[in-house]
Amino acid sequence: MITPVLVWAVGASQLLCWGISYYLIAIFAGPISGETDWPLAVVDGGFSAALVVMGLVSPAIGSAIDRFGGRPVMSIESGLIAVACVLLSVARSLPPYYAAWLVLGIGMRMTLYDAAFAALARIGGPRRGNQFRKSRCSVDSPPRCFGHLGSSSSRCSAGA
């Protein structure tokens, strides 16, 4: 059963994971480029590589959620995202930098929307109805809160 506590826990998890993974580049691309003298396009290329990895590992992650459930898969991702962030922080050349983004791509796929919704759908079962719709409203908020980073407009404060 999808309880209110579960909805809040998944929502908080999504908020944190989106902020420290997907939107990381919006905050750190400039400082990384400045510190390493890498062109901004090269720095942003790491994020693009992570997006490609997310697409490539989607079928395997979906199968893992079906087989083992969302909690273990999404818990492993927390470790992967932490490892990737540490790797990013110590990367002083492009190969380790891009390797960190590849790890981050796997971690993001294991936790962001698709994984969270698959896990909730598995818990809720075929009769999830309103519970699932309510949980989506809570889990859907991270991009609204972090989407403004790196831009001049704030969708979160505008209430979009």
Question: Features of this protein?
Answer:
160 residues, mainly alpha, 9 helices, disordered C terminus
In short:
The chain has one domain. The chain has nine helices and no strands. Helix 3 (40-68) packs antiparallel against helix 4 (70-90) and helix 3 packs parallel to helix 5 (94-111).
Explain this structure.
With 160 residues, the protein is mainly alpha-helical. The protein has one domain (4-143). The protein is 82% helix and 0% strand. The chain has 9 helices and no strands. α1 packs antiparallel against α5. The chain is elongated. The model is unreliable at 135-139 and 146-160 (pLDDT under 50).
Strand percent estimate: under 5%
The sequence of SSEs as H and E is HHHHHHHHH
Q: How many structural domains? A: 1
Rg estimate, integer Å: 17 Å
Give the total of beta strands. Answer: 0
Secondary structure class reads: mainly alpha
Shape: elongated
How far apart are the termini? 30 Å
Layout: helices, strands, pairs:
Blueprint: H1 4-22, H2 24-36, H3 40-68, H4 70-90, H5 94-111, H6 113-124, H7 129-139, H8 142-146, H9 155-158
